[in-house]
Backbone:
């Protein structure tokens, strides 16, 4: 088919479509919404997955995170002294740290962390903050940056210096009007000097349930040894709740391992999963069979999981959207069948004047494709507005649905942090699919039109 | 004079299951170039069937219809379409214009389906305008059919029939829907075209119209009952 003939057919089809604007518009709607929903759903899926990926990468693709887990109550006692003690002892120990960093060659660095929730005070300003005791490497390992001052140093660590670094939000709450550097803050009746403030960092939501969400913005960082000596009685932490004491003994809440090849021969990422396996085995051996007071989180595994979830997500959402596209196609077919009946006489005239069957097929097929293709284009344009529309929806949810008093659930946070991203590949695909729907659902009406007997068609009133 | 079309013992039977309707039972006719012929007959005489065969809209059950030297009786649907496009110009009782098209666009329709689908050139466009002028529609090119009187609509149809320079013009009761004054105008146009050498076959049952043709063929019961000037 030559270009000029194609353009002529197209022009003819456009003319017919424009002749009944309302009808054509309504006919297109099915495809418009079908295509829109495909693009919107893919954009939301893409947004969710890239958010998950970003979080995982923030955790570090070559990191392994080992966390202490409080064992379930019945089996909770690796308690010293056969049931008389009320001290709950679990989690990662100094020995674990030592063995891992000494014996596993692919572990390039370890950052132990001890966390406590404490009231932090400056003058009349108070905040229940997560006090994190760690080493200087913590900053880099968690991809944090400094806004002001400096982070902890090895010197601070060795000297058990009474210094703290405040997270962005903590600093804003405790020092709304002053520069916090050099100022004291009070934690558990002791004073510490502020030496730095970290940069603002968006909170990360929970990933796949294996790691709870972290809000780095309300942290207070202090040297690990300082925390262990000043805030703890040894490793023991005694908490007084409603008149009774409970004591917990945990050395480290978390150890973050950095994996790498010392010789630089293999890709660091390839080592992560085998190393995690070795770490898991090592700690299990040290703690004894059957203990489950620790968990190993591998961000890279989470990344793979997130990727898998995204694929499933895309398939499910895509199928739902595909159904609406099919419904749209059926709508177009219905209208085209009616159009063929309505224009029987025109078909007869064209046949009498020399149109062949395939000319008639082409005419009606092109008309259907123009309808579905235009619908597709409109749907794509609407789809491109998804991110903007999402902002509106978020605002609505924030204003009317979210419970402000109890704060956000993980799901709520996931939702509010999500930015839909229109997948560029989905645009040509969506357009192609809408054209294909025109072909599929236009063929039958077009053939019905071409099958008409010219004599009968000319007689049709 | 050579024959433009010749019919050799044409028959057309319609099998309706329980009965076979013999619409044409052996019609032979020679149509020389430049002829102006009226086919007459009461309804049911087979004249519509004959018209459909002459217009290459249908194939005969038996017999031959040789148009422009080619036998159409065994042609495929595609070939018949080509014949209709290049050799036949249709004029209908009810005009049969495409309502959403302008006068000019209606005249162009046969050009859309030419063999090889050549684009409509400026020359084609000029020819459309010439033909429209010829039938007296030069000032109505942008009008739509509903803005035209019956006579004007029929002029559009005549222009459309002429655009591909066909061998035969088939006119099916061209004045059936017109008043007598317009009828006269249309007949005059057809007569002028015949005088220019065009072959015209016209189906009519009005004596006043038939009288203006060169010869008349009377159909009865699927056969040609007679030829010649209707005695009145």
Residues:
């Amino acid at each position: 088919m030559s270009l000029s003939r194609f353009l002529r057919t197209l022009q003819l089809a456009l003319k017919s479509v424009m002749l009944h604007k309302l009808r054509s518009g309504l006919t297109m709607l099915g495809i418009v919404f079908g295509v829109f929903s495909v693009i919107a759903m893919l954009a939301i899926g893409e947004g969710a997955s890239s958010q998950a990926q970003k979080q995982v990468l923030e955790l570090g693709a070559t990191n392994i995170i080992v966390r202490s887990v409080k064992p379930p109550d019945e089996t909770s006692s690796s308690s010293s002294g056969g049931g008389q003690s009320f001290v709950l002892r679990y989690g990662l120990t100094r020995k674990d740290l030592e063995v891992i960093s000494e014996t596993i060659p692919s572990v390039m660095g370890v950052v132990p962390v001890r966390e406590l929730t404490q009231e932090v005070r400056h003058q009349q300003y108070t905040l229940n903050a997560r006090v994190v005791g760690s080493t200087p490497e913590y900053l880099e390992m968690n991809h944090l940056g400094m806004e002001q001052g400096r982070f902890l140093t090895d010197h601070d660590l060795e000297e058990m210096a009474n210094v703290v670094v405040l997270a962005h939000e903590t600093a804003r709450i405790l020092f709304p009007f002053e520069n916090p550097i050099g100022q004291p803050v009070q934690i558990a009746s002791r004073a510490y000097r502020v030496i730095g403030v970290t940069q603002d960092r968006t909170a990360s939501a929970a990933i796949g349930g294996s790691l709870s969400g972290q809000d780095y913005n309300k942290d207070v960082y202090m040297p690990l040894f300082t925390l262990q000596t000043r805030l703890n009685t040894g490793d023991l932490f005694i908490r007084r709740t409603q008149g009774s004491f409970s004591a917990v003994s945990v050395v480290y809440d978390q150890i973050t391992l950095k994996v790498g090849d010392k010789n630089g021969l293999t890709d660091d990422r390839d080592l992560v999963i085998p190393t995690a396996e070795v770490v898991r085995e090592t700690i299990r051996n040290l703690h004894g069979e059957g203990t489950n007071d620790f968990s190993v989180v591998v961000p890279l595994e989470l990344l793979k999981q997130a990727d898998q979830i995204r694929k499933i997500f895309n398939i499910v959402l895509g199928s739902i959207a595909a159904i609406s596209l099919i419904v749209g196609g059926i709508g177009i077919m219905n209208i085209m069948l009616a159009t063929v009946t309505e224009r029987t006489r025109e078909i007869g005239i064209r046949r009498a004047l020399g149109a062949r069957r395939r000319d008639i097929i082409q005419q009606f097929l092109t008309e259907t494709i123009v309808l579905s293709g235009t619908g597709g284009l409109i749907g794509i344009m609407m789809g491109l507005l998804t991110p903007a529309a999402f902002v509106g929806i978020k605002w609505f949810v924030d204003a009317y649905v979210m419970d402000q008093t109890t704060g956000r659930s993980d799901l709520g946070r996931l939702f509010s942090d999500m930015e839909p991203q229109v997948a560029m590949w989905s645009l040509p695909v969506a357009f192609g699919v809408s054209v294909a729907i025109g072909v599929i659902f236009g063929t039958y009406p077009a053939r019905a039109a071409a099958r008409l007997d010219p004599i009968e068609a000319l007689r049709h009133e | 004079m050579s024959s433009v079309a010749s019919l050799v013992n044409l028959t057309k039977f319609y099998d309706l299951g329980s009965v076979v309707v013999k619409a044409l039972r052996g019609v032979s006719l020679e149509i020389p170039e430049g002829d102006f012929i009226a086919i007459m007959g009461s309804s049911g005489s087979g004249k519509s069937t004959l018209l459909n065969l002459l217009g290459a809209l249908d194939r005969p059950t038996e017999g031959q219809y040789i148009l422009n030297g080619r036998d159409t009786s065994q042609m495929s649907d595609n070939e018949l379409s080509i014949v209709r496009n290049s050799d036949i110009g249709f004029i209908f009782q009810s005009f049969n214009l495409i309502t959403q098209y302008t006068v000019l666009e209606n005249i162009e329709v046969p050009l859309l389906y030419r063999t090889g689908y050549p684009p409509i050139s400026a020359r084609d466009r000029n020819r459309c305008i010439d033909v429209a002028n010829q039938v007296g529609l030069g000032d109505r090119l942008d009008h739509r059919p509903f803005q035209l009187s019956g006579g004007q609509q029929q002029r559009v149809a005549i222009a459309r029939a002429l655009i591909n320079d066909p061998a035969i013009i088939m006119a099916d009761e061209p004045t059936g829907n017109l008043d007598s004054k317009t009828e006269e105008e249309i007949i005059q146009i057809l007569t002028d075209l015949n005088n220019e050498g065009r072959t015209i076959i016209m189906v009519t049952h009005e004596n006043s119209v038939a009288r203006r043709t060169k010869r008349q063929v009377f159909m009865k019961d699927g056969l040609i009952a007679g030829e010649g000037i209707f005695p009145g």
User: Anything to note?
Assistant: The longest strand of chain A covers residues 107-122.
